[in-house]
Amino acid sequence: MSVMATSTNFSEKTEGRDRRFIGGVVEGFYGRPWTMEQRTELFKREQKWDLNTYLYAPKDDYKHRMYWRDLYSPEEAVQLIALISAARQHNIDFIYAISPGLDITFSNPKEVAALKRKLDQVRDFGCCSFSLLFDDIEADMCPADKQAFSSFAHAQVAITNEVYQHLREPETFLFCPTDYCAAFCTPNVSQSSYLRTVGDTLLPGIDVLWTGPKVVSHKISVESIEEVSSILKRAPVIWDNIHANDYDPQRIFMGPYKDRPTELIPKLRGVLTNPNCEFYPNFVAIHTLATWCKASPDAAARDVEMGDEEQDPCYSPHKALMLALTDWLEEFMCTDQPTACLKKESSEEEPMQTDLGEHSYVPGPGENPLYTAEPLTLDDLKLLSDLFYLPYEYGSTAKTMLHELNWLKSHSQAAAVDTDQTAEWRSRARQFDDMCEAVVRMFNRLSNAPNRRILYDLYNYICDIKSGVHLAQAYVKSLGGLGKPSAQLMGADPEPWGFRGGLSGEFQRMLPGHGNRDLFKHPPKTAVYCIRPYCPEDKMDIQRIFTNMQQERRIKVGSMTDAPLISDLLSTGEIPPSPQCALVLEDDMGPCGYMLALMDAKAAAASVQKDTRDRVFEDFPSLITGQVLPRVTDPSPAKRMIAQLLSTIRSCGSKGVFCELRHSDRRMLDFYTKSSSFQPLKMDGLPPDVIAMGTGL
Length: 697
Ligand code: GDL
Hints:
Layout: E1 22-27, H1 36-48, E2 53-56, H2 74-89, E3 93-98, H3 109-124, E4 129-133, H4 143-148, H5 152-166, E5 173-176, H6 193-201, E6 207-210, H7 222-232, E7 237-240, E8 270-273, H8 283-294, H9 317-333, E9 341-343, E10 353-355, H10 378-387, H11 396-417, H12 419-447, H13 452-479, H14 486-490, H15 502-510, E11 530-533, H16 539-557, H17 566-572, E12 582-587, E13 590-598, H18 601-605, H19 616-619, E14 622-628, H20 636-651, E15 656-662, H21 666-674, E16 679-681, E17 690-696
Parallel strand pairs: 1-2, 1-8, 2-3, 3-4, 4-5, 5-6, 6-7, 7-8, 14-15
Antiparallel strand pairs: 9-10, 11-12, 12-13, 13-14, 15-17, 16-17
The chain binds 2-(acetylamido)-2-deoxy-D-glucono-1,5-lactone (GDL).
2-(acetylamido)-2-deoxy-D-glucono-1,5-lactone binds at residues 28-30, 59, 135-136, 176, 180, 211, 215, 239, 241, 244, 246-247, 274.
């Protein structure tokens, strides 16, 4: 690593020598720990990518946390000694961490002695770097400790300082506070008495771990690090949970290290990533962190990427990702199966051939040809990363798919009645289908990739996304009338993969605002509307909507002229709308709006004692009227109905359309005044609170 920590404000221990930037991995997640073989593989990779540290802290390893007092057995000792020695061979600093916080009594000298004994044992295995972790524990002290220490921070610092000195002040010694992110600090970072005590009393040679603003921090800003460094009196080591997935069994993160400006590097003591529980899919997480660590802000070669949301002149997440995926693709091609040896065909386009060595079977004439697997491509890996990107962000293809599905869903009804929209809807539905097919192809090629270890780590996730995408694909087909109706798709008696997520999924769906959060920047509208032709059975519903809206206006305005308008007679059903000129809007609660038109309004004018010689009827012979209930907050269904009726009236040969609007009908007034085509008209004999607006066709 070429980067040096330049935290000169906090240089008590470091005076006169530059300490190297700590860059690497913390195995600090809950769940099944990695195997010794995987850890050794990790050291090789870290060395290759210029990372230098591994922090051993597997939460569910018995002797790291729950039975922290227990010494390692001879068999375990052999394994740990081998591991520590493997780290040394690869120039990796092996930091042994212990988490005694679940049940330690800080004030009991026997407990302190047990801690020292355990760490002495690990030191005897050849380990030189240590860490005490106090994350995820109860902040309450037992009565004995309350008597001995003025605060929890004092208790933790006292034991940490004592152990540090007992181990003769190791070069690397890390402390993880209980308040390890800004969200945990009371009342905030700069006023936290816990952090102040740590900053003031922890010996200066001990470094402090910090996860950023939150446990899983979306972004980590320079200012936030300056703030915490000031109270801790040292630059923190970031324990980065950006790729951790131990909190959600449906997610895994294969997007690039991101949203940490490289300006942070000189302000930090180091960064350790606590990645996905599955070892092999961490290739991208660790590779891109290594690229980030190498991006010194002083680097001569700037790596600006236009279009990046926040441009970092030294690091492009997209480029770092592509570098990582290119290397990863090679690894996918390496078989870990002793029997099957896979060689590349001469042409890149050609499928990979599986050759079973000596016992290879060659099908005879008329027999089944051997199964051949298509090779995995870089595009497949890019898609994989896009679908399983980062905790607060989906990759570009995933975002597009969500956006398109949302559009297709909300425009299917309008496309069904508006021929202009049908073509666009069909074309976007085809593109969506292609994207779904690409996911299926990626799944197939991944499942056939020679490296089975990586596949097995990914399998549940890619299977899950394939099923999710399949459901969406079938749904879009049903919207377009090409598949089963959607009610049948989800209802009836589906197979268990038709209702996903188990009990936890059920709970989530019952909670408000589940799912989307800020991952999907334009959350889909939950209301689905249907615009359909009017039928005689709708008469009562339309009358009800009309009177509801009239009463509502009366309540708001107080008094209203009751002189009937032609529009009123249309809405109450006293005058029937012209054929093909009536639409009903429905949501899941039933009819919620309508739009009606009369081709020839002049004939109806007499019914309301209106002068039929009015010039308006010459330029605007047709009339349109409608209402939408207030529960329809989205203006687009009303706009769609108006557009549809105007197009029908035009195609029947009318020159123009007018509407009559009461001043108190703010909603409808708004629709027409905002529409650039409708203009106010001068019409004789209108009641004082009514205006007419018209548009030529
Ligand atoms: C945590 C735990 C960590 C876990 C992570 C993500 C720290 C310091 N501790 O709070 O073990 O993997 O969240 O769930 O981050």
